[in-house]
């Protein structure tokens, strides 16, 4: 059973989400919050698997709430809701530690699939869309100094050559199927490598691994 906390300042929106989620045999809504402050408090009390997080709310917004929830070390994963014209918020949310983002007018089956994916540590958005998002806001990434050597970040030292190679192509937007085909590996082997990369680098999920690939300059913005 996947437990979900709904965070949105609009009661009708929360009601719609609750109706949809409670129609699923494998999901349970454990609470509703109308702002970021409530979301932080309820996450600490209820420890839901997923917090379905709106961005723009009165008081503490969803970005800061996400940052505080993730930094607390709670097991809750955050799925941010956004719109295409607010991509900068989605970027900020990912940087704050969110496990993914969906467009707010997504189809019901997309929302349900996204929640299930986040709950299991998978990526919600397509890797190629993540790449375009990061490219669009590459100016937010730290500017490397003259002494910076791509791929020499201490966070990468525990990776094998193959794992470093796979992290690089994950950052370039390749799916597991594409990695399997292009590198002539079984898809199960690719999944094992990705799992090890996440564990070794402390990345919560695939999206955070993509951000790591950018941060460490394994992948350069196009």
TrEMBL record:
The keyword Cytoplasm does not apply. Keywords: DNA-binding, Phosphoprotein, Transcription, Transcription regulation. Residues 3-119 form the Response regulatory domain. CDD domains: LuxR_C_like, REC_NarL-like. The modification 4-aspartylphosphate is found at residue 54. The keyword Transcription applies. It holds the Pfam family GerE. Residues 152-217 form the HTH luxR-type domain. InterPro entries: CheY-like_superfamily, NreC/VraR/RcsB-like_REC, Sig_transdc_resp-reg_C-effctor, Sig_transdc_resp-reg_receiver, Tscrpt_reg_LuxR_C, WalR-like. PANTHER family: TRANSCRIPTIONAL REGULATORY PROTEIN NARL-RELATED (PTHR43214:SF24), TWO-COMPONENT RESPONSE REGULATOR (PTHR43214). This is Response regulator transcription factor. It comes from Streptomyces phaeochromogenes. The lineage of its organism: Bacteria, Bacillati, Actinomycetota, Actinomycetes, Kitasatosporales.
